[in-house]
Write a structure and sequence with these properties.
Structural class: alpha+beta
Radius of gyration: 21 Å
CATH topology: Beta-Lactamase
Order of helices and strands: HHEHHEEHEEEEHEE
Number of domains: 1
Mean pLDDT: 81
Strand content: 25-35%
CATH class: Alpha Beta
Low-confidence stretches: 205-218
Oligomer: single chain
Distance between the termini: 33 Å
Helix content: 25-40%
Length: about 220
C-alpha cells in the first residue's frame, strides 16, 4: 500500500506542477539506482534563494580572483592569461513552503562554482577582467528514516518512504548537474558590483514521463 501511495503522490505532484519532485520520486520507485541529471539552470531559474547563495559565493571570491589574475597578467608582460578557479563546497536547502517542487525533488544539495578568470588587454590599454563560470550541484536522493511526505490529500507517514528501500521496493540514486556557462565582467579598474547574469530559461518543463529526461552515465 505504501508504494501505491508513493506512485499516487508522484502522479499528483506532476499534476500540481511539481514536475521534478514527481520525476525523482518515480525514478526512486523504478529501483534502477542509475544516476540522474539535475537541471541546474531550472533550479536557478525557479528559486531566488539558490541564486542569492550563488551570488554570495562569487562575491566572496571575486576580489581575490581578480587580483590574482591581474598579478599573473603583469607577470606575463601584459599578455592574455587564464586562471582556473573553484570555490569550496557548500550546502543549500530548498524551502518546503516556497519551493515544494525542489524541496521534495532534492531537499538539500551540495554546490560549488567552477570557472576561468581571463585578463586581456582592453582597447583603452587597461586590462579587461572577466569570469566564465558554471554552478555545480550534486546530492543523493534518499528518504531519512523519520521523514514522511504529505501532498494534497495524500500522505505517507514518517519513515515509510525509507522503508521502501530497505524492503527492496525502491532504490536511492545519485543526482548531479551543472548550469550553462555564464560570463561576468569583473571590471578593469575596480571589481564590478552589477548583478550577476540571469540563469538561462529552462525551456519546456519535463514531467515524470518525459522521454527526453537525461540520466548521467556511469
Amino acid at each position: 500500500m505504501n508504494k501505491d501511495k508513493m506512485r499516487m503522490l508522484s502522479s499528483g505532484s506532476d499534476r500540481q506542477g511539481m514536475n521534478d519532485a514527481s520525476r525523482h520520486m518515480q525514478h526512486y520507485l523504478e529501483k534502477t539506482g542509475e544516476p540522474l541529471d539535475l537541471p541546474v539552470d531550472k533550479m536557478l531559474h525557479d528559486d531566488e534563494g539558490i541564486r542569492i547563495h550563488v551570488e554570495e559565493t562569487i562575491r566572496g571570491k571575486q576580489d581575490a580572483w581578480r587580483e590574482q589574475a591581474l598579478e599573473d597578467f603583469r607577470r606575463n608582460g601584459g599578455r592574455p592569461v587564464a586562471l582556473l578557479v573553484e570555490t569550496s563546497n557548500s550546502d543549500y536547502t530548498f524551502s518546503q513552503d516556497d519551493q515544494a517542487n525542489w524541496f521534495y525533488a532534492v531537499g538539500s544539495t551540495r554546490t560549488n562554482i567552477t570557472g576561468v578568470v581571463t585578463v586581456v588587454p582592453g582597447s583603452d590599454g587597461e586590462p579587461k577582467v572577466g569570469l566564465d563560470h558554471r554552478v555545480n550541484a550534486w546530492d543523493r536522493y534518499n528518504w531519512d528514516q523519520g521523514k514522511g511526505v504529505d501532498i494534497g490529500f495524500l500522505d505517507v507517514p514518517d519513515g515509510r518512504p525509507a522503508r521502501l528501500r530497505t524492503t527492496g521496493l525502491a532504490q536511492e540514486f545519485d543526482m548531479q548537474g551543472s548550469s550553462s556557462v555564464k560570463y561576468y565582467d569583473l571590471g578593469s579598474a575596480t571589481p564590478n558590483d552589477d548583478p550577476l547574469p540571469a540563469p538561462d530559461d529552462p525551456g519546456r518543463e519535463g514531467t515524470r514521463r518525459d522521454p527526453d529526461r537525461q540520466r548521467t552515465k556511469r
